[in-house]
Write a structure and sequence with these properties.
With 699 residues, the chain is an alpha/beta fold. Among the domains are: 4-225 and 451-508, ATPase, nucleotide binding domain (Nucleotidyltransferase, domain 5), CATH 3.30.420; 516-572, no CATH class. It is 37% helix and 13% strand. Keywords: ATP-binding, Hydrolase, Membrane, Nucleotide-binding, Transmembrane, Transmembrane helix.
């Protein structure tokens, strides 16, 4: 293994999929090079803008044609990753495809088909590390997405270390995280001490590990609002417009620039379309932003019943947010909608509600004709096209409502903050210099690194690779806010093992360290056991005979040979006496002995191929049973008293509960065999000389 470790994450969102490549020093190298201060920090994750690539649309669009997701979508992304991950590191590089809200709303059968095909295609076409498809290729809950984002934000801002430089008051030094995509929105923050104690059961325990191996624990509240992303909110808004005016073809929309006409799906009206013919309703922009704000407010659904107070929007429980110490950063739509048009050229400018609303009003009151001309002249930048321009007024109104009426972020520039501070006349143009201490700040990159939840996932994974200081150290991951390892604890790599010894086991096995020889012998022993199980009984018997010939020469001791057989015969399947078929006597005892029925359903439920279980079971041979009424009361209770089937066991060791007089004794069998006949009339004759030789071997 080289000094660098790599990781690849595919962020499968609702509108597209983006590949992210990260790298970090392996634990041994990082510790050797780290200063005392760096040892107390999390592993340093590196990325590069050219390592990232996004394509459209999202994988959720392949629900009806899952087999196309590989060649038509993933191939381009995986090829991009293979350009930057060194070839010799690919087998050691974990690959994750983590899907978010777009896939959450897909029907379960389509969702499973798409994910199965993603894993199958990646395994067929690359050598990336994909040991567990259920872990590496999955739809993650919104809460998990929010937690990863919280990790990324605090990792980049320094909330996990340098606590004295990030003192927000009341012993608080971490930042809150807000994310809004097309289909969902998330919030994650560490409540103040009072709220954390009051709502302890609502918090998530997060455990990380510094380069030194020291544990870092945090308790975070995370929740998600599915259907509250900008695209889903827009769909709900348009549905409400249509429902409020049944039969009306032209629907006035204050959230669109004046004079713009589009379909209810947000597309331009084409000549000859149903909308152009007056057969389907369409939207007509009126450019009244204040009215747009008023009409989008009900989408917050703040009137829903709150079953577990306090609640924010949609009646969902959220501990009270103390904005004196909880300072939030917002990504995705929070950044694009506040900066892509209205803050162009002011990338680091702190969010100011009053200034922002003024700029939105100015833009959205323009006629669509003027906006089209401005877009053509790149007035708002190269990335602003007509689609962006026609959507931004609704997005801005939705963002403002969610932030201030939904979450309760103070309106900087209008509402007074703690201590009577008002920043109306003191807008901070450089949020970094202020230390991100405003109640809310939209960001995209911090220190040149994009703030993405995928970074948080990789920080957690890299942290799990750091060896702990002792065997008693608790694993890295997250779960319920309980002591120790809670039942729902999730490991970054799907295993409680330390990936430093887990992922590089083959290198460490033969490397120059103190455990090389024991590891080598264990490895050889595993190979021997596999070979032993695979070769079958006859081959084991032949091998044993050869071993006896090799080590038994010159001993001249038949007794010694029998001793050696007794020692290893069981291992190789050799009995100390010749094996022969046991035959039952005619009569009552024979009638008592029969084979039990085979419960095939039970075996299938626990077979290796079962998706529900990976624990092996017996091969399914029928087990002998004794008919009720003939059991000996003195027999050890290996039977179920309510059934007449022997309890199935795994392995060897219990004595035969069947009475000996039901089977032929060895003496009887020898006498009958000496007579040249088997006891049953239907049994074949045996040559007397052959049986005589067999009798001699018994002696």
């Amino acid at each position: 293994m080289g000094q660098w470790r790599y990781g690849v994450i595919l962020d499968a969102g609702s509108s597209g999929t983006r590949v992210h490549i990260y790298r970090w020093l392996n634990s041994d190298t990082a510790r050797a090079q780290a200063s005392d201060a760096q040892l107390q920090k999390l592993p340093a994750i590196e990325s590069d803008s050219k390592w990232t690539k996004k394509i459209h649309p999202g994988i959720s669009t392949f629900g009806d044609s899952p087999h196309s997701v590989g060649p038509d979508h993933l191939d381009e992304l995986l090829s991009h990753a293979l350009k930057y991950v060194p070839l010799d590191q690919v087998p050691h590089t974990p690959l994750f495809l983590l899907a978010t809200a777009g896939m959450r709303i897909l029907p379960p059968d389509q969702r499973k088909a798409v994910l199965d095909e993603v894993c199958s295609f990646a395994r067929r076409t690359t050598k990336f590390q994909l040991p567990d498809c259920d872990l590496h290729v999955q739809v993650i809950p919104g809460e998990t997405e929010g937690l990863y984002g919280w990790i990324a934000a605090n990792y980049l801002l320094g909330g996990f270390d340098n606590t004295s430089e990030h003192d927000h008051g009341k012993g608080h030094h971490t930042y809150g995280f807000l994310d809004m995509g097309g289909a969902s929105a998330q919030i994650a923050f560490a409540p103040n001490a009072t709220e954390a104690e009051k709502h302890a059961n609502d918090l998530t325990l997060l455990r990380l590990r510094a380069v030194s191996g020291a544990p870092l624990e945090h308790r975070v509240f995370v929740t998600t609002w599915l259907g509250f992303g900008v695209n889903q909110a827009r769909h709900r808004y348009v549905d409400a417009l249509v429902a409020s005016s049944p039969g009306t073809l032209e629907l006035p929309d204050p959230c669109l620039p004046a004079g713009l006409k589009i379909t209810t799906d947000g597309k331009p009206i084409k000549p000859g379309s149903q909308e152009a013919k007056g057969k389907e309703p369409y939207l007509l922009g009126t450019g009244k932003f204040s009215e747009c704000m008023h009409q989008t407010y009900p989408l917050l659904e703040k009137d829903k019943e709150c079953l577990d107070a306090p609640c924010l929007l949609n009646g969902q429980h959220v501990p009270a947010i103390d904005f004196d110490v909880n300072h939030f950063v917002g990504v995705s739509e929070y950044w694009h909608t506040t900066h892509q048009i209205f803050e162009m050229g002011h990338k680091d400018k702190a969010y100011d509600f009053k200034t922002y609303q003024q700029r939105v009003n100015e833009f959205c009151s323009k006629s669509w004709e003027k906006i089209e001309k401005g877009v053509a002249k790149k007035k708002w930048g190269k990335k602003v096209d007509e689609t962006t321009a026609l959507e931004v007024c609704f997005k801005a109104s939705w963002l403002i409502n969610v932030l201030h009426d939904g979450i309760g972020v103070p309106r900087v520039g209008i509402e007074e903050l703690h201590g009577g501070q008002n920043t109306t006349k003191d807008i901070i143009h450089n949020a970094k210099e202020k230390g991100f201490l405003d109640p809310f700040q939209a960001v995209n990159k911090i220190g040149g690194t994009e703030l993405s939840w995928t970074l948080g996932k990789m920080v957690l994974y890299a942290s799990s690779e750091v060896p702990p200081p002792s065997t008693e150290a608790l694993a890295v991951g997250f779960g319920a806010n309980e002591a120790g390892i809670p039942g729902d604890f999730q490991y970054p790599g799907g295993s409680p093992f330390i990936s430093g010894e887990n992922s590089d086991w083959h290198d460490r096995l033969f490397s120059n360290n103190s455990r090389r020889l024991p590891g080598f012998f264990i490895f050889v022993l595993i190979l021997v056991v596999i070979a032993y199980l695979y070769c079958g009984r006859d081959r084991r018997k032949n091998a044993f005979q050869k071993v006896l010939q090799l080590f038994g020469r010159g001993s001249g001791s038949r007794h010694g040979l029998r001793k050696r057989r007794g020692f290893a015969g069981k291992l190789f399947g050799i009995r100390s006496t010749p094996s022969y078929e046991r035959v039952l006597e005619d009569g009552e005892a024979a009638d008592d002995f029969e084979l039990g029925s085979l419960d095939s359903a039970s075996d299938i439920d626990h077979s290796d191929s079962s998706e529900e279980s990976r624990v092996g079971r017996t091969s399914g041979w029928a087990t002998p049973q004794i008919k009720a009424g003939h059991a000996d009361p003195s027999t050890p209770q290996l039977f179920d008293p309510d059934r007449d089937i022997i309890s199935q066991g795994v392995g060897l060791g219990f004595s035969n509960p069947i009475k000996r007089d039901g089977l032929i004794s060895r003496t009887d069998s020898r006498e009958r065999m000496a007579g040249g006949k088997w006891s049953r009339a239907s049994s074949p004759s045996r040559h007397r000389g052959h049986l005589g030789a067999l009798k001699e071997s018994f002696d």
